[in-house]
Amino acid sequence: MRKTRKVPVRFAVCIKNKGYEASLEIGKFYRVIHDEDAERRGYLRVIDETGEDYGYSANRFLSIDVPKPLERILLKAAS
Length: 79
Known about the structure:
79 residues; five-stranded antiparallel sheet; globular
C-alpha cells in the first residue's frame, strides 16, 4: 500500500492584479494549490474570486507562512 504524503496548506497575498481585477484583489490572502509543474514554470495555482483554482504568474503574489490559528480562520472563511 502506497502512503500519501500530506501537503501543507499554503497561502499567498496578491500584490499585483493588473488585467485580472475581477479575479484577484490586491492585499487579499489566497490559498495556494500544490502544483509542482506550475511552480517550475513560474506560476502559482490559487483559488481566486471565482472560487475556482487557476494558475497565475507567481510574481503577482507574495508567499507567506501563517500561524495555525490564522490558517484555520482563513480555511473556514473560504469554505
